[in-house]
Amino acid sequence: MENVVIFDSPGKGRGLKAAKEFWAGDVIFSEASLSAVVFDSLAERICHSCFRRQEKLQRCGQCKFAHYCDRTCQRAGWAEHKQECSAIKAYGKVPNENIRLVARIMWRIDKEGSLVSDMQLTTLDELEDHLNDMQEDDLKELKVDIHNFLDYWPRTSKQHTIDDISHIFGVINCNGFTVSDQRGLQAVGVGLFPNLCLVNHDCWPNCTVILNHGRIELRSLGKIAEGEELTVAYVDYLNVSEERQRLLKTQYFFDCTCEHCTNKTHDDIKMGGREVEGVKPSDEQVKEATDYCFGMMEKMDKARLNADYHEVVKICRQCIEKTEPILAETHIYLLRMWSTMSEVQAYLQYFEEAADYARKMVEGYIKLYHPNNAALGMAAMRAGVTHWQAGLIEVGHGMICKAYAILMVTHGPTHPITKDLEAMRMQTEMELRMFKQNEYVYHSMREAALKNKPMTMLHEPKSVEEGIKNLFHRRK
Fold first, then answer.
1. Are 412 and 25 in contact (CB under 8 A)?
2. Partners of 201 in beta bridges
3. Strand 35-38 relative to strand 27-32: parallel, antiparallel, unpaired?
4. Rounded CA gap, 262 and 264, in Å?
5. Which long-range contacts (CB under 8 A, 24 or more apart) does 459-464 make?
6. Does residue 210 contact residue 411 with C-beta atoms inside 8 Å?
7. Chain centre to alpha carbon of residue 164
8. Angle between the 162-175 and 136-152 helix axes, to the nearest 10 degrees?
9. Are the C-beta atoms of residues 293 and 323 closer than 8 Å to each other?
């Protein structure tokens, strides 16, 4: 692979550095998964070959578990499913997604060897499993998975030692990457991408990872000099430094010493108070509002889980009215309240209020995130659609243009989301010209169009940018 070089990164172990200069939006490398499986919870709604969401799927006639779009997908997925199909029939039930993924990986390695492609930079044996760093409860779950794996693994397949099996489980626990649906809006499975495993973490990275047409792409967020280490963010930067470090230590078993963690960059405004005409609230007022907001978020999450969206609105409104005068517009709890309020109100078709909260959310994100952060781009996209739905075409078009510029870097021009966004951008540009020529005609035509085919991005109040924040799959 000519674009990258493996090297020993100080304090991090092996890493990748750029073999040449890159610019924003450049694809540094793309990689197909060594293997991937659909999540247990979505096994009947997602094609097990192309990972597309479909209304009607055809079920495998043998194991009755695998589902496919059609015979084309079934034939394409047969090479991976063949041994799995026989194993499920013999086992009498379907094992969990981790066991299925480990089995698929081991069958492929047994057949093709430890390097399945000339582009593969590392073998699985060389990857860290961090078994010695796992907590006691996680080790208990691992032992249960290994026990069930041994019952599931066919006697006719090549037999492996417990150490080898444990290592693969450890590797996918540390390095599993979520596989998204065809539009990239929802995580639907998990896979293993060996080259991606070599890319180290930084809280303010120079690269991002996106899944595009079944392959992951490592894309540059800005100018990268030859010899510079390539990094991605394993956790969301919206967390304060202490929380990021806790998550990284718990989930990835290392202490982050990046510049943003060391200097606690942005922590003050992520948990700070609102300054009005040079006057700030006291630390006690900010702490009280923060604690109150945290408690209301727990109630809000419970109401969302129960799909009680009117209760969600009631909780959010109560919290916002009490804390908005005190907390900074970049306070991460207030941002979450605004985000949830905009999603749910848009779903309930209160578009003007939804647009107002979406705008506040994006303005806060701009002050915190890297200018080419994918979560910022997705939030701007949602805000643009919400403003369009509210009839605020000028702001809506501006938001959609901003989102398009970011996603051209993070996702690229061929990604389904970028293509959707390009269509939105062209539509809102046309409508904006019409609006400036004659507002009355514009609103009349818009109302007629809405009755026939409203522009939509989501069918339920579910955070779009959440899929971007949680690309790296971890067992819960």
1. yes
2. 232
3. unpaired
4. 6
5. 460/347, 461/304, 461/309, 461/312, 461/340, 461/343, 461/344, 461/346, 461/347, 462/186, 462/343, 463/339, 463/340, 463/343, 464/185, 464/378, 464/379, 464/381, 464/382
6. yes
7. 30
8. 120
9. yes
Residue 107 · residue 86 · CB < 8 Å: no
Residue 213, pLDDT score: 83
Instruction: Please state whether beta strands 4-9 and 13-18 pair in parallel, antiparallel, or not at all (unpaired).
Output: antiparallel
Contacts of residue 323, defined as CB under 8 A and 6 or more positions apart, other chains included, come to: 289, 290, 292, 293, 333, 334, 337
What angle separates helix 374-389 from helix 393-410, to the nearest 10 degrees?
160
Cβ–Cβ contacts within 10 Å for residue 350, how many? 16
Which residues in the chain land under pLDDT 70? Answer: 185, 450, 452-476
DSSP 263-314: TTTTHHHHS-BPPBTTB---HHHHHHHHHHHHHHHHHHHHHHHTT-HHHHHH
What confidence score (pLDDT) does residue 453 get? 55
Contact of 100 with 87, CB cutoff 8 Å: no
Q: 327 with 289: CB under 8 angstroms?
A: yes
Phi and psi, residue 83, nearest 5°: -70, -35
Q: Which amino acid is at 276?
A: V
Helix 374-389 to helix 332-347 angle (10° resolution) is 40
For the record, the structure tokens of 357 come out as 């909260």
Q: Is 134 exposed, middle or buried (0-12, 13-18, 19+ CB in 10 A)?
A: middle
pTM, full prediction: 0.89
Record the tokens describing residue 146, joined without a space: 């290994």
The owner of tokens 């009355």 is: 440
Query: What is the per-residue pLDDT for 445?
Result: 80
Separation CA 433–CA 439 (nearest Å): 10
> Quick one: pLDDT at residue 467?
46
Q: Work out the number of other CB atoms within 10 angstroms of the CB of residue 223.
A: 12
CA torsion 270→272→278→280, rounded to 10°?
A: 160
pLDDT of residue 314: 97
Three-state secondary structure readout of 209-250: EEEECCEEEEEECCCECCCCECEECCCCCCCCHHHHHHHHHH
